[in-house]
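Team,

Forwarding the record for the chain on the shared tracking sheet. I've put the sequence and predicted structure together so nobody has to dig through attachments.
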Amino acid sequence: MNDIVINCSNIRDLPEPAFISQLVKEEDVLIEGAEVRCFRIEQNVDDDTINEWARHIRRHYLRDDEVKSIITTYKADKARRLLVSRIPDRPEIRGGDFAEITISDLVQYIEGYEVPRYKQHGRKDKNSSEHGTDVLAYKIIDPTKPSEDDELLGVEVKSQSASTRLRKAITEAAKDSLKDRSRIAMTIDYYVLMSTAAKDTRTSSELERFLNASEHPYKETFAIGALAGIVDAKQNLEGKSASDLMTNGERRVFIIHRADLMNLIRSVYNRCLP
């Protein structure tokens, strides 16, 4: 297990979580007219992996230095209340956040993008999701000079973690993805402010590259992400086309699935705090 300390200023050093190696890519899951990346979470996830996964999830709400500050500043009961006040406890919020974080991990550690981790951090209400693009990711060819081949990716994510309705998750994500073109600039501005406040200078400077498209053009791409508590994604999507699911060939489709997915999410969140 990686013991690196992840503070507000070095969230970019977030280590690759162990569960990534347990994602099984399913090459035979197809949607006619769409580019699909489908992964299955293995059923047998051991305790060490769940504990590490929980720490990985917790860091999106509370960085390590924030946890240490709360524990060392306050008495145990108050410290516990303050920590609990930052982690969602409503199942639908947990399911949505888990989906966004897991798709972020897929996009970063498998697809090779940089993914800022500010969507869940600093919320005023632990059970209310922030507006904007669900997952913002990018690739920069050369940090010293803008390139037309630099890429900004926006991913709209939907979760059906408590059900087997994978097609519904894809369709709803496809509908909302149409709004991302207008939301993505707002999300960049928000992440620049958040990363600057955290002294995460690498992220803030890289994101600023995408604020002036007219002077420094780049590729803007969009995708959808879907999670569902389903065993067989291939059977669920068999014979379906991009138009059937209201998506199109320009948007990649990221799918992650597992039977009893909500039980896994519950186990992970229940271990987020000591």
